[in-house]
Fold this sequence. Notes:
- By secondary structure, this protein is an all-alpha fold.
- It has helices at about 1-15, 15-40, 45-50, 55-80, 90-105, 110-120, 130-155, 165, 170-190, 210-230, 245-260, 270-275, 280-324; strands spanning about 195-200, 205.
- β1 (about 195-200) and β2 form a beta hairpin.
- α7 (about 130-155) runs antiparallel to α11.
Amino acid sequence: MTSAIGQVIRRKLGLSSVAAAISLAIVTIAGVTLYHVFREIEFGKVIAALKAQSLGGLLLSGAFVVAGYLALTCYDVFALRAIDRKDVPYRAAALASFTSYTIGHNFGATIFTAGVIRYRIYSTWRLSVTEIARIAFITGLTYWLGNAFVLGFGIALAPGAASPIDHLPVLVNRLIGVTAVVALNGYMFWLLPRPRSIGRSNWRISLPDLPSTLVQIGIGSLDLTLVALAMYALLPAEPAISFFELLVIFVTAMLIGVLSYVPGSLGVIEAAMFIGLPQFPKESLLASLVTFRVLYFILPLLLAVLLLGVRELRSIAAGIGRTA
């Protein structure tokens, strides 16, 4: 089963040597950055910063994390409707989305691990390997459309926020943001005349029409915004930073983490945030990042493993009951 899913997704969605080179470059830069950061950090101050975090900030961040994962379930719900599998209930889509993303992203090789988990859950509803590969494509498209919208408009309106990370002049960053917005609008304009599809032979995916694409953009943007709010709630009050600036920096860091293919983007997000927020004391920022990782990565991973384990035990018990 794993081989079948891997072959379909690898062949249809593809992984290239270019992606591997980008991943290696990101990991190298992140490693060097963290090496220099940790040389200067006083870990006693990190512990003090962790203890000083307010309960209100932790609860608020946790609430945004929960809301973000609820928004994340919409990825699979949308994809199922896009491939005309409206018979699959929300509870199945929510479980598949939450467990596949959480476990896949934390353990790495997301395309394959998430595909296997989705297959395990959706096979109950008679979805084929090809249908699950299509779901993977559409959920990925939703994510990238959300990124194009948030980062495109964000960098176009606040180009200076991205400069500490990419070290590009404000004018160049603004041009990149405007280009992303133009490309996004060009894609939507391309969808206008008639239904569009991509692929060939027996592998064709009908792309969502313009109204549905706007929903996709909304889902992806909401997901990214809620996660950024979870991080924003954990930052120290001083020095002050606007949420809009943090949104650009944080979404860029998350995107770099995804492109790195590192399990859980561990170290990559942190390095990008240290680069993007040099005005914050390193110890306080590290405390915020550690707390965010616990709330957004570790606790959801434990819950996802528990939910998937309970489901498997129930399936085994049901199988034993039928054969008894």
